[in-house]
Design goal:
The complex is a heterodimer.
Chain A lengths: L6 E7 L3 H12 L4 E4 L11 E2 L1 H7 L21 E2 L5 E2 L3 H9 L7 E3 L2 E6 L6 E4 L4 H6 L5 H16 L18 H8 L3 H11 L13 H19 L4 E4 L5 H12 L3 E3 L2 E8 L5 E8 L9 E12 L8 E14 L11 E6 L1 H4 L2 E6 L10 E8 L6 H4 L1 H7 L4 E4 L3 E6 L8 E3 L10 H15 L19
Helix pairs in contact in A: 1-9, 1-13
Chain B lengths: L11 E10 L5 H10 L14 E7 L4 E7 L12 H4 L4 E7 L3 H17 L5 E7 L32 H10 L3 E4 L8 H11 L2 H5 L21 E2 L17
The chains are: A alpha+beta, B alpha/beta.
């Protein structure tokens, strides 16, 4: 029993969502996977933590006090560390369904998707219109603009790349989005909410990029189609928080023979003469456990890891700032929705988005969790960058804000040394870039495209029906 | 198994049951016996089963067990909280010929009391009764003997009295079973089914407050979505028996 095999096909380090999906997929495909994490819990940056852990992690209380006690049982809280939602028609949803991980996780809709126009007390907060008829009712636009937006959304809805008659005379692979907006005569404020709250670009850089129009239209279509699936918003969210996602894929991996070890630190990564990875030395030791722990060594052909395991093989590409807030009320002007995404576009006050969720079994009744986040423009005054988002929240019971979080990406593809690294979770409000990364790593590591269709789990030995 | 033609249909509820216990104590074998009435002597560790289901007919209702295996994640103490989430019952298994497995079982019981929903029904099960020349419950471990791997020599090392006293102390159901002969196996599951409070079956899902109520398909929550109903439009509701 309790033995580590002398060799594995793949060693995976870190149990973030990217790593767990890859681990699950590789195990289903028959590879022998050893998956480790230095932490005592699954999820890494994608974990959901309880309130006591959050207070301690942010060192947000006076010594000797236990402020979390007034908020009920700490374990009734599942607080995400990354502010993200799933697009109901997005790729992560697709992977969840293809792998049957939906058996372990239940999802609920997010009640609304909102955008702010203007700032301060005169700001308008309104639902993001997602189809032609919503555009006609939206308070975000004047009467003539509504019609122009309706025409634009109709065109996007009917757009089919293979059918030139739906292109309205434009070549999207060449055009800039500005040309498209100009063609429909859309006003600046309309471009703003389309770009930021439907195409979900973090900045306005996309507007003038040649050929970016195609990407933009596809993003809007993803938004619109996701919206159409369940009706209230394009977003869905797992009960008990995002931390369920890595756990679900880890279980998938384990069911197909993947070996899991938490509380395990890597002592050495061994490379052969040609610089290719050939094995690892590691120690498993539970927190508080006496002695040296269990030391072991094993061979492997490849390593997949999150950036924190190879700090010298990654670079910083930006910083994310965020504040996690506990509220006891919904956000003003969002129709008392229990869960929302609210985007404050860049040109209004800087790029922010806030997010709340309460009835998703992430906190006790009567409370709400809001995460305000943005890409940091100037690491010096990062708390000021969140201010417009924080103001929008109203009264805040508790606020947790740390230093700007570096966003990493790998320096190399990994094909040389056999060490394939993932990217940090970016500032986008969904998981589409994360699933792009999963595909990219898979391609680099396996030399082929990832096909998730048909990756179903066995139906069990028997059906007891 | 389907005798629903008789009179009014009984109410039916799904119950999540998790298996816990040291590796090789016979967790999967017990389930295989219960679900399939089968036994495989040298079974490989479980691969490829998300969970198994089996119905248990009680006089007044039908309980459909959704049985989760650890998938080996217990080996290096790496079971995820998801495993315990909303489990309404647990089978904590030890091997009667291996005292260390009872120590481990006690550890799992403590873990369940810490992590699982309050009110979870826990059954402590001593397995491999067939290896014990029974009717001698006080046949305690003899020094210097290692029964592991020597089936013929394997004898009871954990007395009924010891395990039973512990089970009573912690308010656990207690059975000694043999997955090999089938002895007491269905009895364990029936006892669990009977012990699950009706309230936790009928009540609607509570909103917030993880682990306060059983999560079963009773709630009528229109914002819940069924991702597997792809192609179907509108807000898909969870299947519900009421």
């Amino acid at each position: 029993m309790e033995e580590i095999a002398p060799s594995y096909d793949v060693v995976v380090l870190g149990t973030g969502l990217t790593e767990c999906i890859l681990s699950g997929v590789l195990s289903v495909k028959g590879q022998k996977v050893l998956h480790m994490d230095r932490n005592d819990h699954y999820g890494g940056e994608a974990a959901s933590v309880n309130l006591e852990t959050l207070f301690k992690q942010y060192d947000n209380f006076a010594p000797g006090t236990e402020p979390w006690k007034k908020y009920g049982r700490p374990n009734d809280w599942n607080i995400d560390l990354v502010p993200k939602l799933l697009m109901s028609n997005g790729e992560l949803t697709n992977i969840l369904v293809s792998t049957d991980v939906t058996r372990y996780i239940e999802f609920k809709q997010i009640a609304g998707s909102y955008v702010q126009q203007g700032q301060g007390p005169r700001a308008t907060v309104a639902k993001v219109p997602s189809d032609a008829s919503e555009a006609l009712r939206s308070p975000l636009m004047g009467i003539f603009e509504k019609r122009r937006a309706k025409n634009f959304l109709q065109w996007v809805g009917n757009f089919d790349e293979a059918n030139p008659s739906t292109h309205n005379g434009m070549n999207l692979s060449q055009a800039t989005m500005k040309q498209v907006y100009d063609k429909y005569g859309l006003e600046a404020s309309t471009r703003d909410f389309i770009g930021h709250s439907m195409a979900l670009y973090p900045t306005d850089d996309y507007i003038d990029k040649k050929g970016q129009a195609k990407d933009c239209v596809e993003r809007i279509r993803l938004y619109v189609n996701s919206m159409a699936r369940y009706g209230k918003s394009p977003y869905i969210y797992p009960l008990y928080g995002l931390g369920e996602l890595p756990q679900g894929f880890a279980r998938l991996s384990a069911i197909y023979g993947g070996t899991y070890m938490l509380n395990t630190t890597i002592d050495e990564v061994k490379f052969d003469g040609s610089g290719k990875v050939e094995g690892i030395r590691a120690t498993m030791k539970e927190r508080g456990e006496a002695g040296e722990g269990m030391k072991f060594e094993t061979k492997c052909k490849k390593i997949l890891a999150d950036p924190s395991y190879f700090p010298d093989k990654v670079k910083v590409t930006g910083h994310l700032v965020k504040a996690i807030c506990i509220l006891n009320h919904p956000i003003d002007k969002t129709d008392n929705s229990d869960s929302v995404q609210l985007i404050i576009p860049q040109s209004q006050v800087g790029r922010k988005h806030a997010l709340v969720s309460s009835t998703h079994n992430v906190c006790p009744k009567g409370y709400y969790i809001a995460i305000v986040s943005t890409i940091s423009e100037s690491p010096a005054n990062h708390h000021l960058e969140l201010q417009p988002g924080l103001e929008r929240l109203g009264k805040i019971e508790e606020q947790f804000m740390g230093a700007p979080i570096p966003i990493y990406e790998p320096l190399q593809s990994g094909e040389q040394d056999g060490v394939f690294l993932s990217r940090s979770y970016d500032a986008s409000s969904h998981f589409e870039t994360m699933t792009d990364d999963v595909r990219d790593i898979y391609r680099r590591a396996e030399g082929e495209e990832l096909v998730v269709k048909g990756l179903k789990e066995g139906e069990g030995l028997v059906g007891g029906e | 198994m389907t005798d629903s033609t008789a009179s009014a249909p009984k109410p039916s509820s799904s119950v999540k049951l998790v298996l816990l216990g040291e590796a090789a104590v016979g967790k999967s074998s017990l389930v295989l016996r219960f679900v399939n009435n089968d036994f495989q002597p040298n079974k490989e560790p479980t691969i490829g089963a998300a969970f198994l289901t089996q119905k248990c007919q009680l006089p007044s209702r039908t309980i459909k067990f959704e049985i989760w295996d650890t998938a080996g994640q217990e080996r290096f103490a790496s079971l995820a909280p998801m495993y315990y989430r909303n489990a309404q019952s647990a089978l904590v298994v030890y091997d009667m010929t291996k005292p260390s497995s009872l120590v481990k079982a006690k550890h799992w019981v403590a873990e369940l009391q810490r992590q699982a929903s309050p009110g979870i029904v826990i059954a402590l099960v001593g397995n491999k009764l067939d290896l014990c020349d029974d009717d001698d419950p006080e046949d305690e471990a003899q020094d210097g003997e290692n029964a592991e791997g020597h089936e013929e020599e394997a004898v009871r090392k954990v007395s009924t009295a010891e395990a039973k006293a512990y089970a009573e102390e912690e308010s656990l159901l207690f059975y000694e079973t043999s997955a090999k002969t089938g002895h007491n196996v269905s009895e364990v599951f029936t006892a669990i089914a009977n012990a699950i409070p009706e309230t936790s079956l009928k009540g609607p899902r509570t909103g917030a407050g993880g682990g306060t109520q059983a999560a079963i398909s009773g709630g009528q929550d229109t914002s819940r979505v069924n991702l597997n109903a792809r192609g179907a439009d509108g807000a898909a509701k969870e299947g519900c028996a009421c």
